[in-house]
Design brief:
The protein has 283 residues and is of the alpha/beta class. It has 12 helices and 10 strands. The radius of gyration is 22 Å and the shape is elongated.
């Protein structure tokens, strides 16, 4: 039986504890993760902050009852994860700038907000790392893109990689590629869910109950993904093995290919990239 190596991280503050932040938090609360100095989290509402009352490893603060909550949370934190809505980021950074520890690493999970924006609002002795996780972080299966800022060291980057490895896999890329990454792994779960949704509808149209259709479709997607994960072969080879010459699958795949599936995915991801650039420009 293999033992999961212990991951040791310094004190961490989450500013904004919405769904993505809480998914990352769940990874940090795994038994093999040790956070020296503890975890702090802020929410706007006291009700949301109170949801951490039964978790002794997290100190939660509410900005509606404590105007200094964000500044209190970052005091002594080596890692500060900014997980508020993008429009709120500049104001939040100005609020905490002089409360951050020298050498702290500020980690962005705010879509579309550039490293330059973060660095412009923070002291020079604070580094920035921009990230793009996706929703499977909730089940420890995230793919997170990580990009270094101009002031971050290799040690800073490695620390952030260790943080996100608690909820899945990590790709280190230049910031210039982060928006493109978001169109694949960031938006990707939605593409998969859409395919599942449509294939389920097709099954129901063929006379299966919704429950039967879900069993077939969701089980097939899960099984195919797990088969790919344990196989040394690429998806094209695995597809060929399912596609017998002149058989039913070959006929179905031909219809999908004739519909321009490759071009459709290219246009879809191009559209997502264009929107990401609009968001970055404040449009």
């Amino acid at each position: 039986m293999t033992t999961t190596p212990t991951v040791e991280l310094p004190a961490i503050a989450f500013l904004g504890a919405g769904s993505m932040a809480r998914a990352i938090l769940a990874g940090l609360l795994a038994p093999h993760v040790a956070v020296e100095g503890g975890i702090r989290a802020t929410n706007r509402s006291a009700e949301r902050a109170a949801e951490f009352d039964d978790e002794p490893r997290v100190r939660a603060f509410a900005t509606e009852t404590d105007a200094a909550a964000n500044r209190t949370a970052v005091d002594g934190a080596k890692l500060v994860v900014v997980a508020v809505k993008p429009a709120m980021v500049p104001g939040l950074l100005d609020e905490i700038a002089d409360a951050l520890e020298p050498g702290a690493v500020v980690v962005s999970v705010a879509a579309g907000v550039t490293v330059a924006t973060f660095e412009a609002h923070l002291p020079e002795q604070v580094s920035v790392v921009r990230t793009m996780p996706n929703t499977p972080a909730v089940v420890g299966r995230a793919v997170t893109g990580v990009s270094a800022g101009t002031r971050s060291s290799e040690a800073d980057l490695a620390l952030v990689v260790s943080l996100f490895e608690t909820v899945g896999e990590v790709l280190v890329v230049p910031e210039s590629q982060l928006d493109a990454l978001s169109t694949i792994s960031g938006s990707g779960p939605a593409y998969v869910f859409l395919l599942i949704e449509e294939l389920t509808k097709a099954a129901v149209a063929k006379g299966f109950t919704t429950e039967q259709a879900r069993t077939m479709v969701e089980g097939t997607f899960r099984g195919a993904s797990e088969l790919l994960a344990v196989s040394d072969d690429d998806p094209a080879e695995l597809r060929r093995r399912v596609t017998s010459p002149k058989g039913t699958t070959e006929r179905a795949v031909a219809v999908l290919q004739d519909a321009g599936l490759a071009d459709l995915f290219a246009r879809a991801t191009d559209a997502a990239l264009a929107r990401a650039r609009e968001l970055a420009a404040g449009a």
